Amino acid sequence: MRKIVTAALQMGPIQKSESRKDVVDRMISLLDQAKAAGATLAVFPELAFTTFFPRWYMENPAEVDTWFEAEVPSAETKPLFDRAREHGIGMYVGYAENTSDGHYFNTSILTAPTGEIIGKYRKVHLPGHSEFDTERDFQHLEKRYFEPGDLGFPVWHSQSGIMGMCICNDRRWPETYRVMGLQGVEMIMLGYNTPAVNSQMPSEGPEDRLFHHRLSVQSGAYQNATWVVAVAKAGIEDGFPLIGGSLIVDPNGKIMAESKTLGDEILVHSCDLDLCTFGKETIFDFARHRRIEHYGLITERTGAEVPPE
Amino acid sequence: MRKIVTAALQMGPIQKSESRKDVVDRMISLLDQAKAAGATLAVFPELAFTTFFPRWYMENPAEVDTWFEAEVPSAETKPLFDRAREHGIGMYVGYAENTSDGHYFNTSILTAPTGEIIGKYRKVHLPGHSEFDTERDFQHLEKRYFEPGDLGFPVWHSQSGIMGMCICNDRRWPETYRVMGLQGVEMIMLGYNTPAVNSQMPSEGPEDRLFHHRLSVQSGAYQNATWVVAVAKAGIEDGFPLIGGSLIVDPNGKIMAESKTLGDEILVHSCDLDLCTFGKETIFDFARHRRIEHYGLITERTGAEVPPE
């Protein structure tokens, strides 16, 4: 057995007015709880250091920059990384990345229990739009503030397993899981900020949103025989509600743990990576069963094209 | 609104001893019920004319041939096609196909309400194995009796919609839905024969099998904003149990109708194809959101390869 005691560290809302320091203090408190529970891996949400700022339309680049990290760890976020190293806990942390050469990504990093940063992922599937949209009940401007990720979907060896990352909307795209599945992934970590109401269809509320979230995560886990740990920033941020529903899902697609609140909350599960083996060697033994000669459109064509009648 | 009143025509078990004529009589009775319910589309199971013969190990080619159709319709199956035409019902029907040039496929065809055969699909994802397996509780010899389908995943214009087909194990593979999604599919029809116990893990019984079935069908529907109609051959065939759980799933991934029995049973739902539009134009607008530059492994690599440490 290769067990990783894994903590999903859901975070409640972060208001615009809260400082990085306030947030990092909360994250350290969650990390202490993870340590007390015996965890060696902690998964934080997407954009964990700030409010979900893409809901705000901004035109001033200097204002936009205040939501991004120019370096990680910075003076303000270093105490989190120090504490994780002291605890011997590897971390997934999401943040807004401003590169030294002027690029902007929705990013996550993976650290080893030794504290070393061993992996970086940049969100590939950016939802939303880039200009102010008068048709929506609220804005979702990820395509305005971020470039699509340029690192693909790599995997990393850590804590005896093969680890992968993605972020929020990536989880709705089966390509995300499959590209990692084709590299033998055994645990996919992801953070998310998901509005509790569809900005383009007000009748689609939190129950529907949680249903789609679970459906996407559970099917991705099952169809690639991998653990998936999905962690929310939840609750009401400056009047805008986000779903909770953080999940630890096993390689059979079953929910092993699920959050109950919309606040800071810890889920812990001992994830046995050897449970991935059965699926990977039988029904999802890709080498025996996949037929790539019929999958061409998936990489040839971006959008849908209806064939002529 | 483009509504297709659709009948999922679940079939109970077919024993080895039952004749084609007996089976066709049952199918005609189901078709009559579909007509009475106002349906213009009827979906039958995989291998609808016979027992699920791949559970039997056979070495004699002449014996194998008895389970295949050399022509469709044949003298024995023609009454079904005649009745469908009389009723003005288009059909999906699964059967074992023996081509005139010596090939063997697990096939389905689509007819128009006029009776014309307008589409053929051959199962791409064959589960199971090709030689007698002493490690299994029972055999699943699809790889022995069938070649993988050679027609890809086409779609067809019929009844004002864009229709696709797949068969049984295809539904567990997100590539199946996505290739059709990239052609704008609005309704995917599939039949299945799914053992109620995993032949390689006896503890995985009907509840787990139904869970995986629903998860695969519902996620495929949601992630491609398409209707999916999934129809079982169910119940105990010569001592071997098959799950039921026939489903009509909407483009939101929600179950609109589900079978309650393991016998011949009809589900009817009026499927509004225009409900596909919202998903296809927003969260799953592939042209805006897919990033094919990061999907390369899906078509480059058949099996999983773990990168070096």
UniProtKB/TrEMBL annotation, chains A, B:
A UniProt-annotated Pfam family: CN_hydrolase
CDD domains with a match to the protein in the record: DCase (cd07569)
SUPFAM superfamilies in UniProt: Carbon-nitrogen hydrolase (SSF56317)
Every CN hydrolase domain range: 4-275
InterPro entries linked: Aliph_Amidase/BUP (IPR050345), C-N_Hydrolase (IPR003010), C-N_Hydrolase_sf (IPR036526)
Transmembrane segments: none
Nucleotidyltransferase listed as a keyword: no
Superkingdom per UniProt: Bacteria
Protein name as annotated: N-carbamoyl-D-amino-acid hydrolase
GO molecular function list: hydrolase activity
UniProt keyword terms in alphabetical order: Hydrolase
